[in-house]
Amino acid sequence: MATVTQPMPGPGRTPVKGSTRVVRLLRGIARPYRNSHGVGRFMLVTGTVLVVLMLLTAVFAPLIATFGFSQVAGADGQRFMNHAEPGAEHIFGTTTQGFDVFSRVVWGARTAVTVVLLALAFSLFLGVLLGLIAGFVGRWVDRVLVMVMDALFALPALLLAIVVAFLLSEYVGGGASTAALAITAVYVPQYFRVVRAATVSAKEQTYVEAARAMGARPATIMFRYLLTNVIQSVPVIATLNAADAILTLAGLGFLGYGIQPTEAAEWGYDLQRAVSDTGAGIWWTGLYPGLAIVLLVMGLTLMGEGLNETMNPAIRVRRLIPISMPELTAAQRTKAAQVPERDRPGQDRPVDTGGEDRNSREPGSGETGKGGAA
Amino acid sequence: MPTKPELMTTPEQSAERPLMEIRDLKVHYELRGSALARLVGGEGETVKAVDGVNVALRKGEVLGLVGESGSGKTTLGRALLGLVRPTSGHITYGDLDLARMPQRQLRSVRRRLQMVFQDPHAALNPSMDLATAIGHPLRIHKLVKSKAEARERVRETLERVGLTPADQFLDKLPAELSGGQKQRAVIARAIICGPELLVADEPISMLDMSVRAKILELMLELGRDLDLTYVYITHDLATAKFFCDRVAIMYLGRVVEIGPTEEIFADPKHPYTKALLRAVPDLDPERKVPRDLPRGEIPDAAAPPHGCSFHPRCPFAFEPCGWEARDLRAMFERRWIRLGEDALAREEPLVGELTEVDAHEEMVRVRAGGRAAELTALLEEARADEPDDPLWKGVERIESDGGAVVVRFRPGIDPGLLRVNAVDVACHLHDPNLSHDH
Amino acid sequence: MTEPVISVRDLRVWYGSERGPVRAVDGVTFDLRPGETLGLVGESGCGKSTLGRGVLGLLPRGAKLAGEVNYEGRNLVTASPKAIQRLRGPDLGLIFQEPLTRLNPLLRISDQFEETLRTHEPGLSKQDIRHRSIEVLRAMGIPPTRYRAYPHEFSGGMRQRIMIALALVLRPSFVVADEPTTALDVLVEAQIIGILGDLRRNFDTSLLFITHNLGIVAEACDRVAVMYAGRIVEQGPVTEVFARPQHPYTRELLRSTISLSTTGLHYIPGAPPDLIEPPSGCRFHPRCPSAMRVCPEQFPEQVEVGPQRVECWLHGPDELVPEGGREPLVREEITVADEA
Ligand SMILES: Nc1ncnc2c1ncn2[C@@H]1O[C@H](COP(=O)(O)OP(=O)(O)OP(=O)(O)O)[C@@H](O)[C@H]1O
Ligand SMILES: Nc1ncnc2c1ncn2[C@@H]1O[C@H](COP(=O)(O)OP(=O)(O)O)[C@@H](O)[C@H]1O
Ligand code: SF4
Ligand code: SF4
Ligand SMILES: [Mg+2]
Ligand SMILES: [Mg+2]
Question: Where is it mainly found (chain A) (predicted)?
Answer without folding.
Answer: membrane
